[in-house]
Amino acid sequence: NRRQKEMRLEASVDLACEAKFLSSIVHPNIVRIRGVVGEPGAFHFGIIMDCLQMTLADKIEEWEVEEAGGTKKIGGGVLSGLLRSMQKVKAKTNATNATNAKQTGKGSKQDAVSADIIADKMLAIFDIARAMRYLHKNK
User: Fold this and answer.
1) DSSP assignment of 23-67, as one string?
2) Distances, alpha carbon 125 to alpha carbons 15, 68, 78, 98, 132, in Å
C-alpha cells in the first residue's frame, strides 16, 4: 500500500512535468493542452487536451483495410506500418497501371483510390516530419 502511494505520487509529479512541457508547445500537428485540473503533483491532478478523432495507427489500419478489400489487420509500429503499407500500395499501383495500360490504354478507378491513399500517406509523413522538426528545434 505504501509503495502504491509512492508510485501514484511519482506518476502525478511526472504528469505535472508533462503538462508544463505540453503547455509550451503550439504546433498544428501536435495535440494541445487546454488546461489542468487540480494541483500539480497532487493525486487528483489531470490535464485536459484536444480530443483526437483518429490516431495515426487507426489511419494506417484504415488504409490497409482499404487496400486489402476490407479484411486486413496490421502489426508493428506506427511509422513502420505507414512505410510498409506505402510500399505495398506503390507496388500494387505499379502492377495495376502496367496491366491496365496493356489492356485498355488508360488507368482504372482503383488507380485513383490508390493515388488518394498515397497522397494521404505522404501528407501524414510530412506532418510527422514538421512536428518532429518543431520539437527538436524548440527543446
Assistant:
1) HT---TTSPPEEEEES-TTSTT-EEEEPPPSS-HHHHHHHHHHHH
2) 28, 21, 11, 27, 11
The string of pLDDT tens digits covering residues 29-72 is: 888 888 888 887 676 778 888 887 888 888 888 887 877 765 55
pTM over 0.70: no
What is the grid cell recorded at 48? 485536459
Question: Mean pLDDT over residues 75-80, rounded?
Answer: 55
Q: Return the bridge partners of 110, or none.
A: none
31: cell is 495535440
For residue 115, how many other CB atoms are within 10 A of its CB? 13
Contact indicator for 93, 109 with CB cutoff of 8 Å: no
HSE-CB at 54 with a 13 A cutoff on CA atoms is: 9
CA 24, 139, 14, 59 dihedral sign is positive
